[in-house]
UniProtKB/TrEMBL annotation:
Domain Trichome birefringence-like N-terminal: 104-156
Similarity-based family: Belongs to the PC-esterase family. TBL subfamily.
InterPro entries given in the database record: TBL (IPR029962), TBL_C (IPR026057), TBL_N (IPR025846)
Cleaved signal peptide residues: none
Record-level GO cellular component terms: Golgi apparatus; membrane
Source organism of the structure: Phaseolus coccineus (Scarlet runner bean)
Alphabetized UniProt keyword annotations: Membrane, Signal-anchor, Transmembrane, Transmembrane helix
Protein name: Trichome birefringence-like N-terminal domain-containing protein
Major place of residence: membrane
């Protein structure tokens, strides 16, 4: 019998002795009518003795359980007991609730390790894959790029559990705000969730850039809002200096196509990056202040970094200015491209078939600058948002994705024999592929946030 099992019996015995003593005193009289001890002293002495015995006997046994009951681990298990779903799938065995030590772990620093059980869907089982990311359909000859998982240096990162995710977000909504890589992420999540349920299209428009999907059984809605520059922008020249378009960016103006739509969303996942490589003209207060590679006379080249910083600053300011918004904002950091032997429009390609080790991939140059700008603007926005009770979270995917030169479509976004002019795609990600890990990160962060709420 365990120590805990003795406790109820010991308590019952002690209480019985106490009750018996009091009753005995009340119901009996001394045979001679008088005693040498005053009657009013007997219950106090008896009661004191019983209480001392009770305290000495019980306290040592009960103390460990008081400590255990107040531990965060017990509260965490109670909080999430209802979302542990039985999936009858060995792949889910290591996606149970994380141990308390994981909260102190940096899940974004680590290595890619083999995962022979992946992928968890295929291009034949998921209709949400866009053609340009459907690498297996269009003849990619290798498949090892799908069979890796992210292993943090100091803990384990559970593989995405769609049952847990849908239980956590039940009755809520999630918006992906940004460019086509953000849409790529949402498509990955739809495929991962397909093991539980397919969503229905509840879009307000036929525009593919603004889609809404709903999971009826969980009353969960996800949406994508296309805003490649995050701020108001328009095409000034469809070709521009590099035949990729010239864009006017109004760096101090909100893009109302998304800022007017996110008020009631519970989660916002914000991203942006690759569109800032293209030629841009920067406007502030309705006037041109500079540009990036616009090749216009008397317009200073402020570089892409100027526009990038101001765009994120304006986007965060738009979110923080929403009067009744109570959601959580996730910034998904920049995912570097992997063009080799040329830039993206001059023959560059990505033909590697294995991930880098962390020692082989250094964040530097333009990638480092864009990443640091995001972190700096994020910290400023977080400080301002905290005044309104808003939560800002960082999905720091940059280093992990820097190590995945093997995960891009390259030329496998169309049939090899087709007479089409498409650049090699070393920006987006094959599905299934490395981008599925972003859902691992997101679910882990949602679970840890829930645990912190449970222990606060």
């Amino acid at each position: 019998m365990t120590t805990l099992s003795y406790f109820p019996s010991l308590l019952l015995l002690s209480l019985s002795l106490l009750s018996f003593s009091i009753m005995k005193f009340q119901d009996s009289e001394h045979p001679f009518g008088n005693t040498t001890t005053p009657k009013h002293m007997i219950p106090k002495v008896t009661l004191l003795a019983i209480l001392v015995i009770l305290a000495l006997a019980i306290t040592p046994l009960w103390y460990p359980f008081l400590s255990y009951h107040s531990s965060s681990l017990l509260k965490m298990k109670n909080k999430y007991k209802h979302i542990q779903a039985s999936t009858h799938d060995d792949d889910m065995a290591h996606s149970n609730l994380p141990s308390a030590y994981v909260e102190m772990c940096d899940i974004f620093t680590g290595e890619w390790v083999p995962n022979p059980k992946a992928p968890y869907y295929t291009n034949k089982t998921c209709w949400a894959i866009h053609e340009h990311q459907n690498c297996m359909k269009y003849g990619r000859p290798d498949s090892e790029f799908m069979k890796w998982r992210w292993k943090p240096s100091d803990c384990e990162l559970p593989i995405f559990n769609p049952f847990q995710f849908l239980e956590i977000v039940k009755g809520k909504s999630m918006a992906f705000v940004g460019d086509s890589v953000g849409r790529n992420q949402m498509q990955s999540m739809i495929c991962l969730l397909s093991r539980v349920e397919w969503p229905i299209d509840v879009s307000y428009t036929s525009d593919e850039y603004f889609k809404r999907w709903k999971y009826p059984s969980y009353n969960f809605t996800m949406a994508t809002f296309w805003t490649p520059h995050l701020v108001r922008s328009k095409v000034a020249d469809s070709k521009g200096p590099s035949n990729t378009g010239l864009f006017n960016l109004y760096l101090d103006e909100h893009d109302e196509k998304w800022t007017t739509q996110i008020q009631d969303f519970d989660y916002i996942i914000l991203d942006g990056g690759h569109w800032f490589y293209r030629p841009m003209v920067f406007y502030e207060r309705k006037k041109i202040v500079g540009c990036h590679f616009c090749l216009m006379e008397n317009v200073p080249d402020l570089t892409m970094f100027y526009g990038y910083r101001k765009a994120f600053r304006t986007a965060f300011r738009a979110i923080n200015s929403l009067e009744d918004f109570k959601g959580t904002i996730f910034l998904r950091t920049f995912a570097p491209s992997h063009f080799e032997n040329g830039i993206w429009n001059q023959g560059g390609n990505c033909v590697r078939t294995k991930p880098f080790r962390s020692s082989e991939a250094q964040l530097e140059g333009t990638n480092l600058e864009l990443y640091m700008i995001q972190l700096e603007e994020f910290k400023k926005a977080e400080k301002e948002g905290r005044k309104k009770g808003l939560k800002f979270k960082l999905i720091d995917t940059t280093q992990a994705m820097l190590m995945r030169p093997d995960g891009h479509p390259s030329r496998y976004g169309h049939w090899a024999h087709e007479n089409v002019t498409l650049y090699n795609d070393c920006v987006h990600w094959c599905l299934p592929g490395p981008i599925d890990t972003w859902s691992d990160f997101l679910l882990q962060m949602l679970k840890m946030e829930g645990m912190r709420s449970a222990t606060s």
